[in-house]
Amino acid sequence: MTSAKKFELFQKVLVPVVAGFPAEISLAAARMIAGAERLLLFGLVPVAENQSLSTGATRAQQLRRFLRTIPEVTLARTRVSYNPWHEVVNLIEEEQPDLLVLEWPSATHALGVNLEEILSHPPCDLCLVRAPLGRLKRILVPLRGGPYAELALRLALNSAHNVDAKLSSLHIRTPQVTSTTRQRKLALNQDAAFEGLSRVLDQLPEVNQRNVQTRDAAKTIIQASKKFDLVVMGASAQVRKTQDSFGQTAERVLHESKSGVIVVRTKRSMPARAITQSVGQKAISVLVDKWFAENTYHSDEFVDLKRLRRLKEAQGISISLAMPALNEEATVGKVIRTIKTALMDKAKIIDEIVLVDSGSTDKTMQIAADCGVPVYAQKDILPKHGVHKGKGEVLWKSLFVTRGDLVFWIDTDIVNINPGFVYGLIGPLLANPSLQFVKGFYRRPLRVGKKLQAGGGGRVTELTARPLLNLFYPELSGVVQPLSGEYGGRRSVLEKLSFFSGYGVETGLLIDIFEEYGLSAMGQVDLQQRIHHNQPLEALSMMSFAIIQVVIRKLEKRYGREILEDVNKSMKLIRFEDERFFLDVEEISELERPPMVSLPEYGKRRFRNLKGDRQV
Q1: What pLDDT digit, counting tens, does each position of 147-205 carry?
Q2: Is pLDDT above 90 for 71?
Q3: Element (H, E) at 41
C-alpha cells in the first residue's frame, strides 16, 4: 500500500573531493550514511604556494567533469586554492552540513592539514573512514557510554537501514579494578551514561545487543570485528590534556582491524564529568528521530479505500468506531453521516459505529439515532461499576459496547469533518501489523470571532502535556499532539489498559502503551486540519490540572512512591463578578478505571460476540 518508511538522521553530508586523490571510499561511505540525494560534494584543486593559481585551471575542468558523472548529488562549487582545508571550513560555515566525511589516512594529506589540527577544532561533526567498504551485511557499533556514542549509534542505524545490513551493538564495560583514580572515575561515568543508551537500545529490536567486560577495549573490538564487515565507533572517551586525537582505542582499531572502520567525533568535545548527564539524552534523540520518521504517516497515504478493504479482509478483522459526545447537536449529525456513508455503507471498511453520550441536554442523542447508529448513555453502561463524569469514562465504557478487533475514537465536534479523519487512523494499523496504537494530529486554527488564527489551538498540548512528556517521558517527545481526540488501536491491547475517567485519559493511555509495548508499537498520522469549538481558558486550566495528576500517578507507579496522597485534588479557580475577585473550588480528581478485560461482564459479552461472529 505504501512505500517503505525511510528515516533520514542526516540531512546533508559533505564530502571534499580533491583532484588527484581517489574519493571512492569517502563517497561510498557518504552514500551509505545518507543516500546519494543528500550528498554535498566540494571539488578542490590544491596548488603549491610557489605557483600561480591559474595553473590549476585544467585540473579544475577535469574535476568538474568527474563530479558531473555522479548522479543525484547536490554539487558544491569547485575551488582552486593554496589552502584546501581553509576552503572546506568556509564552506561548512556557509552550508552547515550535518556531517563531514573524510577518508583516512589520505584525506589529511590531500587537504594539506594534519589530523591534529582537524581534531583540535572540528568545524562540524565528522567521521574518518578506512577501507575496505564492500558489500556490507553486518555492522558492529561498540558503545561504552562515551561522549560520541550518540553520533556513532545514529550513523550506524542510518547506514544499516540504507544498505539493509544487520546491526549489532557491543557494550564494553571496564572492570572497576583499574590502575588509576582517573580511570576508575571514567569507568563509573561511562557505566552510568550507558544506562541512557540502554533505554534506547531496548526500544530498537533491530539491534542485536552484546555485552563484554574487558581491560583492553581495542583488542576486544578488533577481535569482534572479524565477524563484521564494518565497525562504527566513537572516538575514545579518554581524558587527555589535548583533544587532538581519536584516542588510543580508536587509533588501534583504525590501524589493526581487517574490517572497514568509521570513527566519529562531534564538533564539540565533552568533558568526562558531563558524559553521564548527556549521552543518554542524546541517544534518546536518535530513538525519537528514528521513530518519528518511520512511524509518522499522512492520511493521503490511505486514500485508496478499495485497497484498505482488501487489507482488512485479508487479515480477517473487524473495525469499530466509537464517538464520545456531550451537547454536540450542531456537528454530530454531519460527523456521523459523513463517516457512515463513506466508510461503512460504501467502502465497507467500518463494521460498526456507536455513539456514547455522557449526559447531553440538547438533541445530540436524538440526532445520532436518526442517523441510524446505536446510541448509548454512558450512565446505563456497566451501572454496577458506578457512574463518573468525564471523557475517559465514555471511552472506557465504549470498549464494552463495541465488538471490533480494531477500535477507533473521534470527537463529534469536528466542523470540517471528512472521511480522512478515520481512514487515516485505520490505514497504519492495517498496513503495519506491528503497530498497536495510532494517534492523529493536525493543524488546529483557533476561531476568534469570525476569523481563524492559524496554529492558535492546542494550548494545553504545548503548555502542559508536551513539556511534561519531554521532562519525564522523553521517548514520547516526538508525538505531535498527545491530547488529540482522534486515535485508536487493537482491542487486544486497549482492553488490557486502565483508563483515567477525565481529561487525562489520552495522556495515561499514551504512557501505558509506551511502557508496556514500546515506542515502536505506536504510530501517528497527519490528519491535516481540524476546526472545532475551542474551550475557554478556565476549562483549559482544569484540563491541565487533570493531566498533571495523571503524569504524577504514572510516575508514582514507576518509582513506587506516593506523591499525590496528601495533595489537594480540588482546584481553586479565580473568578471575577460584580467588580470583585473571589475563589471557587472545582473537584478535579482523575479516577483510574481498571482494564476492561478484568471485568466478568466484559468476558461474557466478548464470548457472545465471538460466538456470534463464528455463526455468521
Answers
A1: 888 899 999 999 999 999 999 999 988 776 555 555 554 554 556 667 778 888 888 88
A2: no
A3: strand 39-46
Q: CB within 8 A of 66, min separation 6: which ones? A: 17
Cell of 55: 595553473
Mean pLDDT (whole number) for 569-592: 73
- Binning the chain into helix, strand and coil, the percentages to the nearest 5 are 45, 20, 35
Q: Is the pTM of this model over 0.85?
A: no
Give, for 39, the enclosing helix (H) or strand (E).
strand 39-46
SS (H, E, C) 553-608: HHHHHHHCCCCCCCCCCEEEEEEEECCEEEEEEEECCCCEECCHHHCHHHHHHHHH
Sequence length of the chain is 616
**Measured distance CA(443)–CA(458) in Å, rounded:** 9
pLDDT digits (tens, 9 = 90+) for 406-452: 999 999 999 999 999 999 999 999 999 999 999 999 886 555 555 54
Cell output for 500: 483515567
CB of 157 closer than 8 Å to CB of 290 = yes
Cell 482523575 -> residue: 590
Strands (DSSP E) contained in 222-351 are 230-234, 260-265, 296-298, 319-325
CA distance 376 to 368: 10
Q: Is 533 exposed, middle or buried (0-12, 13-18, 19+ CB in 10 A)?
A: exposed
Judge whether 102 and 238 are in contact, CB under 8 Å: no
DSSP string for residues in 133-153: --S--EEEEEE-S-TTHHHHH
Buried-state track 42-79, b at ≥16 Cβ within 10 A, e below 16: bbbbbbeeeeeeeebeebbeebeeebeebeebeebebb
CA distance 229 to 156: 12
Cell reading at 583: 475563589
Pairing of strands 260-265, 296-298: unpaired
Angle between helices 391-401 and 505-517 (to 10 degrees): 60
